[in-house]
Amino acid sequence: MKRNMILKVVTDFCMTTVLIVLMPYELVGQAAHEWLGIGMFVLFILHHIWNGKWIRDVFKRKYTLFSFLQTILVLCVFLAMAGSMVSGVILSRHALAFLPITGGRSFARNLHMVSAYWGFVLLSLHLGFHWSMVMGLAKKHLKQMPAVLVWTLRGAAFLIAVYGAYASMKRGIWEYMFLKNQFAFFNFDELLVFFLADYIAILVLFVWCGHYISKWVKIKKKKLSLQ
């Protein structure tokens, strides 16, 4: 595997891990959450550095339906991440408390909630759009798996995605995304591992959705004229 590809894979794996751990805000502690957010910002920058060629070619490439939707998804992810980072700076009471920022906390709190939950969903979909590439890399470095094992893994992914749909309702993901509930609820009697397990299942749900949406779109093979 080439060095640049290794850097991409490691960076994306770290981003996914940090993304999940960022979600239990109160359960990991405010200070830890802020430092994790700064780490996410650094990883986000590195991700764009490693993918600089793709970004530079945005206005040059000929778009298919898939690449058009992929680009729109990337733009939405960028906006959600920008919203999370800007609002996070305003709300910081630990890592960035030295900054002379006053006021705007009420708006920043709502922006942070919307950006964080939309960002979680959009980043999961974005990963799903690239899952075929992830599987392609895995096949290059793993021996051919029996068909039974392949279908077992697919079945397991489907079952986890189904539970992820249930977990998304239980955790009120949709209510947070549309600000129907402006205060995130955390059960401090709940073990952190159970909270994280639910969010991993929710991530799998949207990765699964993104993967199969991308497969369906690729089948269409419709050219878009953007000129």
Task: Characterize the structure shown.
The protein is an all-alpha fold and about 230 residues long. It contains 10 helices and no strands. Helix 1 runs antiparallel to helix 3 (about 30-50), helix 5 (about 65-90) packs antiparallel against helix 6 and helix 8 (about 145-170) crosses helix 10. It is globular. The two termini are about 35 Å apart. The mean pLDDT is about 90.
Please name the defining characteristics of this protein.
mainly alpha; 227 residues; 10 helices
**Biggest pleated sheet:** none
Please give the alpha-carbon distance between the first and last residues: 37 Å
Proportion of residues in β-strands: under 5%
User: Total strand count, please?
Assistant: 0
Rounded mean pLDDT is 89
What is the chain-wise order of helices and strands? HHHHHHHHHH
Query: Helix share of residues?
Result: over 70%
Instruction: Supply Rg.
Output: 19 Å
Shape: globular
Structural class: mainly alpha
Query: Could you list the spans in which at least 5 consecutive residues all have pLDDT below 50?
Result: none
Q: Helical stretch count?
A: 10
In short:
This protein is mainly alpha-helical and 227 residues long. It contains ten helices and no strands. The model has no long low-confidence stretch (mean pLDDT 89).
How does the SSE layout of this entry go?
Blueprint: H1 3-22, H2 25-28, H3 30-50, H4 52-56, H5 65-91, H6 105-129, H7 131-141, H8 147-170, H9 173-177, H10 192-220
